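Is this the right way to post structure tokens for a design question? Let me know if I should format differently. Anyway, here goes:
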């Protein structure tokens, strides 16, 4: 089973309400599946979280969880300060988690929907 995070960019309050109603119906029907959705109001909002370097970092962590942010910075050949900042931003978004100093990606797959 794939651990997936859905990323949505744009949409309206009506779209959000429809998604909520659908999830509620599934729950009432006994479907205990949990969806993880990361929603951004705009493309700029997504771009402020998912830069090219952060995407590269996330892909690396998916394949090679690291024992520390320092080990991650060394593996990526990047400055510790920048990697630490990137990990913090990705952690706030729910895409990375740190436990006992170790760093790992929280999903196997990201899928995106961009509403025009």
């Amino acid at each position: 089973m794939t651990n997936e995070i859905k990323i949505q960019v744009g949409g309206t309050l009506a779209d959000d309400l429809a998604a909520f109603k659908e999830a509620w119906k599934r729950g009432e029907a006994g479907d205990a599946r949990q969806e993880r959705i990361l929603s951004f109001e705009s493309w700029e909002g997504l771009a402020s979280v998912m830069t090219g370097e952060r995407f590269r970092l996330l892909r690396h962590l998916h394949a090679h969880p690291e024992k520390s942010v320092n080990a991650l910075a060394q593996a990526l050949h990047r400055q510790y300060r920048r990697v630490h900042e990137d990990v913090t931003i990705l952690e706030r978004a729910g895409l990375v988690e740190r436990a006992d100093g170790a760093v790992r990606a929280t999903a196997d797959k990201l899928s995106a929907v961009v509403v025009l």
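Format looks fine. Someone answered above. Worth noting: The CA atoms of residues 27 and 33 lie 8 Å apart. The mean pLDDT is 91.
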